[in-house]
Amino acid sequence: MTEIPEHLLKRAQAAREKSADAASAAEPAAASGESAAPAGDSRIPEALLKRSQAAKAATAGGAAPDDEGARGGGVAVAEKVGAMVAAVPTSAGVPVGAGPGGHTQRLLTVVKSGSIQDVKATPVDKVHTWPHLLAAEFVAALAMTAFTFIFSVFVNAPLLQLANTNATPNPSKAPWYFLGLQELLTMFHPMVAGVTLPGVGVIFLILAPFVDRNPSNKPEDRKFATSLMTVHLMFWAVLVMIGSFFRGPGFNFVLPWVDGLFFEL
Questions:
Q1: How many angstroms separate the CA atoms of 59 and 55, rounded?
Q2: Residues with Cβ within 8 Å of residue 72, at least 6 apart in sequence
Q3: With CB atoms 3.0 to 4.6 Å apart as the test, which of 14, 78, 86, 167 could cross-link to 48 if both were Cys?
Q4: How wide is the angle at C-alpha 27 spanned by C-alphas 25 and 30, nearest 5°?
């Protein structure tokens, strides 16, 4: 059990003594019909005090009040308020042991609010990987597998004969996915076409997420990224088509509708 400080015990004892003195001084005044507290110290409105005295005089004389609804309720309220005021020890209109401004509240202890706080996570614009992302990727993988299967049915891709080191084919072309790089070798130095330009492309692809930080998934909101990727694909597609259909013997430029087609799928 918590011990009460000594100064609080002394203050309570002084309050009890002053309350007993006030009660003993109020008894003769009550016997003579006077108010227990001075008019200046009373906290009861003057109208209620007069109504209470009139009701007491009427009751002592045996006469009933004229207005029961107006006086009876007022007498009861006045008597209750007077009893509460008399029960509180006062000193010059201020309760004994009160703090600044006459307040009687006391701060016992400070309770930390960390354990009673209901902290909720702030909602963010995110979705789970499953099923939102993986379901779409699975459907895309099935579509690409079906397209590859159908394409292989209609397009024949047989293995060629064994390579003969004594007879180099003319023209000698790389697979179609490398024909763009082979076409660059006819335009630039091998160091530029084989190392510099492909290296710059790979580095740009690595930096692409940091260059374009637009979180939108709509093409109309990402015109810069869409335009840049379209230009890259068109540039590479044009190189592949030139190497496939417009290069003949000696990898020279030919017209397919004049000299024929020197390309095999």
A1: 6
A2: 55, 65
A3: 78
A4: 115
pLDDT for position 100: 58
Amino acid identity for residue 6 in this structure: E
Fold entry, domain 169-259: Helix Hairpins (1.10.287)
pLDDT at residue number 150: 93
Kind plus residue range of the DSSP H or E element containing 225: helix 223-245
Angle between helices 73-87 and 6-31 (to 10 degrees): 140
Q: Where are the domains of the chain?
A: 6-98, 169-259
In order, the DSSP letters of 146-210 are HHHHHHHHHS-----PPP-TTS--SS----GGGHHHHHHHTTS-HHIIIIIHHHHHHHHHHHHHH
- Residue 179: half-sphere exposure toward Cβ, Cα within 13 Å: 21
Is there a contact between 253 and 247 (Cβ–Cβ < 8 Å)? yes
183 and 243 in contact (C-beta within 8 Å)? Answer: yes
The residue written with tokens 């003769």 in the block is: 28
Sign of torsion over alpha carbons 170, 172, 176, 180: negative
Confidence (pLDDT) at 82: 52
pLDDT at 241: 92
First to last CA, the chain: 95
- Identify the pLDDT of residue 54: 87
Both tokens of 103, joined, read: 């307040």
**Structure token pair of residue 54:** 């009139």
For the chain, 265 residues long, the average pLDDT of each consecutive 10-residue run is: 75 85 68 49 70 83 50 50 50 54 62 59 73 92 95 80 84 87 91 91 86 83 86 92 91 90 77
What is residue 247's DSSP assignment?
Answer: B
